[in-house]
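Hi P.,

Sorry for the delay on this. The queue was packed all week, but I finally got your sequence through. Input first:
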Amino acid sequence: MTYAAEGLQLIVDLGVWWGERTNGLPLPLGANVVLKRLGVPMMQELTRILRDSIEYGLQHRRQALDYAGAFGRGLDDGLTDRFVGMYVNELTRDYGERGRRAIERFLREGASAGLVPKLDGLEFVT
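Then the structure:
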């Protein structure tokens, strides 16, 4: 978002590259992981808390942007809004089947490239 202002040149937009490569799947930018040994009730409670927090941020965007702006390294309000929108959106709250396919593919391709260990099946907490 700010590379040109920093004197850098775009080589590849990874979001565009991934979308073209995967027929439009979203690029996974991060994940929350929980220990299975905590048990299903605790995993579901943690999932609920995270979802509620994201929902609150979506419903109180101005306050969320004011908070995020403190960490924006000089981004103006418009860029802060755009940046936050990349990470906090409807897919963040519930990425659904499409998001799960994206995560599975991302990790599968990473394992094929030797960048991450191969996983024998992912489990998603809902």
